[in-house]
Amino acid sequence: METRAFSTSVMNMTSLCDDVGPFDGYALTSLDDLPGISMLDFPCEDPFPLLNSSHVLPNNTRRPPIRKLCAKQGCVKFARCQGMCTQHGGRRYCGIHGCPRVAQFAGKCTTHGGTKPCDVPGCLKSMQSRGKCKAHGGGVRCQAPDCAKGSISNGFCRGHGGGLRCVVTRCTKWAQRERMCVRHHHDYSTADNSAVQMMQM
């Protein structure tokens, strides 16, 4: 029984070989066909490639981080701070004493400097996008051809129709004071003062 089992294992091993060298050309039927030959003499590939240190398995075992849900019973939103979502108090507030605003950067709100500064040396303005403030190329650009200014509203700068316009009819200037341009606001204020002076007389 042991001889038959050993012979069977030899035949199985020879089936794994791509090239049996001097034994190529005839079939192996028994141990008598292998005089003085050890099983280590067969030039076979590694039958256990997974145990070889040269084989590196792909690292597919990493799993994405699991986000916890809000600790409030019945809430299905993700927790943001202290186990709560933003709706149930999971917010980081400004580190300045007495400030009720939400912290944006470095533990402070935007009013108290909680914004990333512009990457341009010497610029103290807040970063908008691409590491720069709006004056140095950050933020959304105007959609008008060859215009490098920042977009104010509707995708355009003030010079190309963006921003609020003066409420006075047929005035195309942008509003600066009380929804009016500087000129019409001045005329409006002067007219009101004249009317008040006439009423006082």
Automatic annotation (TrEMBL):
Q: Which Pfam families match?
A: Zf_WRKY19
Q: Ranges for the WRKY19-like zinc finger domain?
A: 116-138, 139-162
Q: Which InterPro entries match?
A: Znf_WRKY19
Which residues are in coiled coils?
A: none
Query: Which named protein is this?
Result: WRKY19-like zinc finger domain-containing protein
